[in-house]
Amino acid sequence: EDPADRVPLACLPRSEDFGDCPDEIRNLLPEDAPLGHVSHVNVRYSQGPKHGENRSPLYCFRWLAGDHPVHFQTTVAAAAGSHHAAAVIARACWLKFAQGWKKNQVLEWRNDCYALLKTACGRGSVV
Q1: Whole-angstrom distance, CA of residue 11 vs CA of residue 101
Q2: Reduced to 3 states, what is the DSSP secondary structure of residue 19?
Q3: For 46, which of 2, 14, 73, 112 is 20 to 30 Å away at the CA?
Q4: Which residues contact 79 (CB under 8 A, 6 or more apart)?
Q5: How many whole angstroms separate alpha carbon 40 and alpha carbon 62?
Q6: Model pTM above 0.85
Q7: What is the pLDDT of residues 5-45, one digit of tens each?
């Protein structure tokens, strides 16, 4: 992946402006990090890897667990196709790491968020 494909969310429209998140998704999302929280800068949008002519957009960050950086991401596809949902879930995952959760716990929680959206909306894929 080209690092130029990654941009801080602060450089993009606010996630509330994405307009791709109907109420049936928005109402199921975890609590977002408050505006101004460091996760709003450190969670970054990436166009994602190419699959043929298509890309798989995602939101990612690196969490420093001791001396070990932990890469973490949420994908738009798994978040019922919503950029807003993927961004909110990524920031909520940041908050879980900040509470001391381990990566496997955060992964399980993220996948539960995906499954809830998929069940409610009948779309997206849990990865």
Answers
A1: 29
A2: coil
A3: 112
A4: 85, 86, 89, 113, 114, 117, 124
A5: 13
A6: no
A7: 454 444 444 444 455 666 777 888 999 999 999 999 999 99
